[in-house]
Design a protein that fits this description.
Length: about 180
C-alpha cells in the first residue's frame, strides 16, 4: 500500500492502518493532535524516521518486521506501547524512565535477551512473553506493576525475580524453571 499521497486531516485523533501492506512509513506525516496510532501487522521494517506528535497516547507497532528502534523518540504522554511480534534485539537505547506516564508496555515475541532497560515508574502492565530473557538478577520492576507476563521466556531460576508487593497477576508458564 502506497501511503505517500495520503493527506491526513489535521483534526484526526485516531489512525488505524493495521493489516495492510505498508512497508515505507517515513513518508507519513502524522497529524499534530493524533492520540491513537495503529500500524500493526504490516511488513514495515524501518520506523527510525517516524515523528510522533506529543499528543500520542497509544502506539501499536506490533506484528511488523522492525529490527531497530534506536532513534525513535516516544512522546512523554504515551500510555500504551506495543512493540510485540517484531525482530527487535536491542532495547538498551529504550529509555522509558521516570518522565513517562506509560501504563502498558508489550514486547512479546521479540528476539531480545538482555534485561537492562529502564521501565516507566508508573507502569501497571508488562508483557514480555516469548522473549529470551534468562536472568532477572539486576532487573527492577516498577512498584506500580499489577500484571506481569513472563510466559515462555527462558527463565530457569525464579528466585532472582524481585516482584513488586502490589502485583496481582503473574504468568510464568512455559519456562525452564527448576527453582522458585
Amino acid at each position: 500500500m502506497d501511503i505517500s499521497r495520503l493527506r491526513l486531516p489535521q483534526s484526526l485523533l485516531t489512525l488505524n492502518l493495521s493489516s495492510n501492506e505498508i512497508e515505507l512509513v517515513s513518508v507519513l506525516i502524522l497529524p499534530p493532535f493524533l492520540e491513537d496510532f495503529n500500524l500493526s501487522f504490516n511488513p514495515t521494517q524501518d520506523v527510525l524516521d517516524m515523528v510522533f506528535p506529543p499528543t500520542l497516547k497509544t502506539l501499536n507497532l506490533s506484528g511488523n518486521r522492525i529490527h531497530d528502534i534506536s532513534t525513535l523518540i516516544f512522546p512523554l504522554n504515551l500510555v500504551e506501547l506495543d512493540l510485540s511480534h517484531n525482530h527487535i534485539k536491542d532495547l538498551s537505547c529504550l529509555n522509558l524512565g521516570a518522565q513517562f506516564n506509560m501504563r502498558k508496555f508489550s514486547f512479546c515475541l521479540n528476539e531480545f535477551s538482555v534485561s537492562a532497560f529502564q521501565l516507566p515508574k508508573n507502569l501497571k502492565f508488562l508483557f514480555l512473553e516469548g522473549t529470551r530473557i534468562v536472568n532477572f538478577m539486576n532487573f527492577k520492576f516498577p512498584d506500580t506493576l499489577v500484571e506481569l507476563d513472563l510466559r515462555e521466556t527462558a527463565i530457569w531460576d525464579a528466585s532472582a525475580l524481585k516482584l513488586p508487593a502490589g502485583l496481582k497477576s503473574l504468568v510464568l508458564s512455559g519456562n525452564r524453571m527448576k527453582n522458585f
